[in-house]
Amino acid sequence: MNKWTIVSKVAGAIALCGIGYDANKSAVRRARENVKIGIADRLPDAFLKSRRLDETSYITSKLKDKVFQEDVDGALSDKFNAITGYLGGLFDQVISNIIPLGCAIGTLVTNKASKFFGIGLGLCGIKYLLSDVFDFGRVKHFDNDS
Questions:
Q1: Mean pLDDT (10-residue bins), the chain, 146 residues
Q2: What domain count does the chain have?
Q3: Left, alpha or beta for 130 (phi > 0: left; psi -120 to 50: alpha)?
């Protein structure tokens, strides 16, 4: 392997790690949001049920408080909301980075074409730096020069 193949494979590995890290962070954020939305949908009804008493019984009141506390602390639906949120955030981020992901995998998997995938990965990186980091080529919606 020559030095350009090694450089492109290292760039592909770095890009793959960056895409994976970004996808994981986005997925964790989406999972937390889904759990919060699920709690916000579920808890008001559970709280109202825990406050409704047909009779003035101290034992019934304590049992309803305990059931409500269990519903707050360890609801199974929160775990499903977290899983679906994580998978949704992960796939959204991977799909939005599909071209750099393909180039990064191409640099790591192929031997002869890894330089070409490395060039594509470099072009994706330049486009990312110019448009997302430095804001070149973006429409400025709040300019007063209309």
A1: 87 93 95 89 78 77 81 77 92 93 93 89 90 79 66
A2: 1
A3: alpha
User: Quick check: pTM over 0.70?
Assistant: yes
Q: Which residues contact 76 (CB under 8 A, 6 or more apart)?
A: none
Residue 113 maps to a domain: yes
Q: Is residue 32 part of a domain?
A: yes
- Establish if 139 belongs to a structural domain: no
What's the gap between Cα 17 and its chain centre? 15
CB 53 within 8 A of CB 61: yes
The answer to whether residues 103 and 15 touch, using CB atoms and an 8 Å cutoff, is yes
Yes or no: say if 101 and 22 are a contact pair by the CB < 8 Å rule: no
Nearest CA-CA partner of 102 in 124, 86, 130: 124
